[in-house]
């Protein structure tokens, strides 16, 4: 997938299926006890290498990853946008007036920790930040849902 931000800056992007987020969340408690639990998760690593989904890209060859995140307790979707080179997540919540930041942070916590481990494990990048988790910003200047 290629996306164009403007006529001067062309960036490459990819996305994941919602199953990526589901799998990460299902492993998170185990991961917090033993980070090596991720090392045997070839299905998750195949997202990073670009072989899991049609038209997927190796995360070492792209600039951005878009990750749909389902908030089970709220029956609400949010979007996490990862800037791979900067080890950062921008999080978009179209209902932040009713879905509070603490619930959003709880939903992205597994991604913040596990994505860096997957990138290190697959070695798709020559350099990965030494930090334990991705930094994040909860983006507020976005259109909001009016239906609740």
UniProtKB/TrEMBL annotation:
GO-annotated biological processes: proteolysis
Protein name: Ubiquitin-like protease domain-containing protein
Family listed: Belongs to the peptidase C48 family.
Family annotation (SUPFAM superfamilies): Cysteine proteinases
Residues in Ubiquitin-like protease family profile domain copies: 1-148
Organism of provenance: Abeliophyllum distichum
Superkingdom of the organism of origin: Eukaryota
Keywords: Hydrolase, Protease
PROSITE patterns in alphabetical order: ULP_PROTEASE
Single GO MF annotation: peptidase activity
A Pfam short name: Peptidase_C48
